[in-house]
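Posted in: Structural Biology > Protein-Ligand Complexes

Title: Requesting predicted complex, zinc ion in pocket

I'd be grateful if someone could produce the 3D structure tokens for the following input. Sequence and ligand are given below.
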Amino acid sequence: MGDSIFAASVTPGISSEALSFRAVPDDCIFCKIVAGELPAEVIDSDEHTIAFMDINPATRGHALVVPRAHSRDLLEIADEDLTATITAARRLALRMQETIEPAGVNVLNSCGRAAWQSVFHFHLHVIPRYVGDPLELPWIPGPADQDELARVAAKIRGE
Ligand code: 5GP
Ligand code: ZN
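-- Reply #1 --
Done. Output follows.
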């Protein structure tokens, strides 16, 4: 699952930026699942999204919700697709609550390789949680350095 190869052809005289609005990777496995070209255990779908089981589940019932339209990640996805995808994720969590009855649920997104993203078609993990399951909080909570916290907050606000 390396970097995507983009299908948009290179037209002399037109910059890649100008073409990027219609660039869709031709090796995206989630696009292939959306198109029905790769098999998947689909559990829900609507006009804008599809949900299917993760092939390497973290827990029993671990699923992925993806927009039908390709976008690389959280930074790139259109607001309407993001809204549709989180709405579908909640619908799936409610369905899981009624059917496989987890004790809780994590909805997770990884944005960027450094943040564990490995498939570069936006997706939300819907991970049912059970008492005593093997998942652990991936950071150690501890009090912030208040000056550093204030400095980074100011930076994010653009000050
Ligand atoms: P990420 O690491 O990008 O947050 O999540 C990608 C997820 O996609 C992983 O949990 C991985 O197990 C799952 N995955 C990768 N390839 C396939 C596939 O071909 N089919 C399905 N159903 N899941 C996949
Ligand atoms: Zn895709």
